[in-house]
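ok so i was messing around last nite and threw this chain in just to see what happens. nothing serious, just curious
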Amino acid sequence: MPGALRERRAIIIQAEGEKEAAEKLAEAASILNRAPGGYFIRLLRSIPEITSQPGNILAFPLPVELKNLLGGLEAGTLKAFSQAIEEAKEAKEEGGAGEG
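result:
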């Protein structure tokens, strides 16, 4: 019987912890909802945490407005934009190689 009592207490403690975590998440969501762009900023802050581990793939939705913006650009502009991104990556890699 003592084992069953201990297990019951453990379940109650776990449930209380989950309830507290849910309340904190709801509070955080409420705070983010009040700030314009709050969820997007939180998403951007999460990306380095997620991608810092090798082999992780990150897929996230983009606003429809971005598609409209990119759709209105000329092909040459998109190519220049892609090239600028690649150059920035290479410069970061070169700069990071000398550190450490």
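not much to say yet. The two ends are 58 Å apart (CA to CA).
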